[in-house]
Amino acid sequence: MLRRTVAAFDNWTVAPMTLDELKSHLLADIPLARAMALDLAGWDGRTFVVTAPLEPNRNDKGCAFGGSLASLMTLAGWGASVLRLGERAEGAEVYVQDSHIRYLAPVWQDIVIHAFSDDEAPEAFAAAYLDRGRARTHVQAECRLVDGTVAASLSARFVAIDPKRPRPAS
Questions:
Q1: How many helices, marked H, and strands, marked E, lie in the chain?
Q2: Is the dihedral of CA 32, 34, 39, 43 positive or negative?
Q3: CATH number for the domain running over 6-161
Q4: Could you give phi then psi for residue 132, rounded to 5 degrees?
Q5: DSSP annotation string for 67-88
Q6: Dist. CA 152–CA 150, nearest whole Å
Q7: What is the rounded distance in angstroms from the CA atom of residue 54 to the CA atom of residue 50?
Q8: What pTM was computed for the model?
Q9: Contact (Cβ atoms closer than 8 angstroms) between residue 125 and residue 160
């Protein structure tokens, strides 16, 4: 088995792990991820790929349920944000701050989500977190069909917060 060191959450914080360990934590700590049969297909340092079978995620018409697509894209965006922080930000708490979803075509197949940062300087997210104890990143997630067509997309902002640092005064 190929082990790739990545970052994941341990009690909702970042800690170095393999993709298999990240999957175990997602399935153990987020019941919806388990119900959707989420699987992690890979991380290449830029793009995080999440998959799920159609059957537990279908609606009454037989295509993918919009709520499942929204949840899977959000989880993929969260995972991409956590992975970008890497080992340098152990202990970070990562949250989705806001998101916008577009549904473009029905999904009649197993679900494949690609999540990636649309920030120009990916290292800036981790650097800002290490410097200030808080950072934001923009993430795109796409549900792609077999032919590459984007069936749904999410544009989101995720924040990383160091729980050990005092919050700035408002």
A1: 4, 8
A2: positive
A3: 3.10.129.10
A4: -110, -10
A5: HHHHHHHHHHHHHHHHHHHGGG
A6: 6
A7: 13
A8: 0.86
A9: yes
What six digits make up the tokens of 28? 């153990």
8 A C-beta contact, residue 50 and residue 113 = yes
For 147, residues 6+ apart whose C-beta sits below 8 A from its C-beta are none
Length of the chain: 170
Q: Could you tell me the two tokens for 18?
A: 């393999």
Does residue 158 have a pLDDT over 60?
A: yes
Q: What is the CA radius of gyration of the chain?
A: 16
Report residue 92 as tokens: 């970070």
Which residues, listed in sequence order, are joined to residue 103 by a DSSP beta bridge?
A: 152
Joined together, the tokens standing for residue 27 give 């399935």
Token pair recorded at residue 101? 């979803």
DSSP 168: P
CA 122 to chain centre: 15
Strands in the chain per DSSP E:
6-9, 14-17, 39-43, 47-52, 93-103, 111-117, 134-144, 150-161
The average pLDDT across 134-144 equals 96
pLDDT digits (tens, 9 = 90+) for 44-99: 888 999 999 999 999 999 999 999 999 999 999 999 998 888 766 778 899 999 99
